[in-house]
Amino acid sequence: xxxxxxxxxxxxxxxxxxxxxxxxxxxxxxxxxxxxxxxxxxxxxxxxxxxxxxxxxxxxxxxxxxxxxxxxxxxxxxxxxxxxxxxxxxxxxxxxxxxxxxxxxxxxxxxxxxxxxxxxxxxxxxxxxxxxxxxxxxxxxxxxxxxxxxxxxxxxxxxxxxxxxxxxxxxxxxxxxxxxxxxxxxxxxxxxxxxxxxxxxxxxxxxxxxxxxxxxxxxxxxxxxxxxxxxxxxxxxxxxxxxxxxxxxxxxxxxxxxxxxxxxxxxxxxxxxxxxxxxxxxxxxxxxxxxxxxxxxxxxxxxxxxxxxx
Length: 310
Fold this sequence. Notes:
- By secondary structure, the chain is of the alpha/beta class.
- Helices cover 39% and strands 18% of the residues.
- 40% of the residues are buried.
């Protein structure tokens, strides 16, 4: 199926439907970019692909020709029915009608269960199955989806997705850049991040108001395994940038109020050779990880029910 503008407008007019922009329905109508998206996912025969936002199935179809299975999630029942018609007869596609997010901080467990079920099946070529996310993501769910997948026990080996350029800039940012923040820290602590292509609004229908990007996050398991407590590091990443213009000491005092005394925070600041004007946005990844671990070790001295980041 060639998902061009003329094809989509004719199809939607015939069915008497319109794109639901509130659901993030911006269809990628540049066929070269659609091809670049699924090719950048490096899909292989032993891969279990999660797609979020089935749409008309234009990305689902070519992925199903390469992967062991495509698990495709769509919240809009009309779109899912259209995709089922377009993809009729393809046996390695599993359709799920749901919102992938249970809430902002939690993924839908039924989807994760299906992913685990497929990963546990033997691969046809004898290799172990591998999990990947490849999708033209609805903008409204992109950040929490990527963040929460990295918090699961079995994160994707590759996440290759279209997202807002602003979000892509945050994922790929470096220290001392205005975009360096919690998401940069969280993703780069576990993944190699690349911006594959910047895309103007004209390659989508309906046109979004902002530029988009194809990004690829490749899991680095050695890097991820060096994080002693993923949940704590995730909370720390968000807390340390909650008021990003605050000085680091004030941010730490706020995050660990009633758990780490200010005197001990000052000692940690001295140990790390920070001065009173240090800000979180200037600190590189390894420094942040060391600071996080020092704070975690302090909390481990407390009863479990008091080891909180505010």
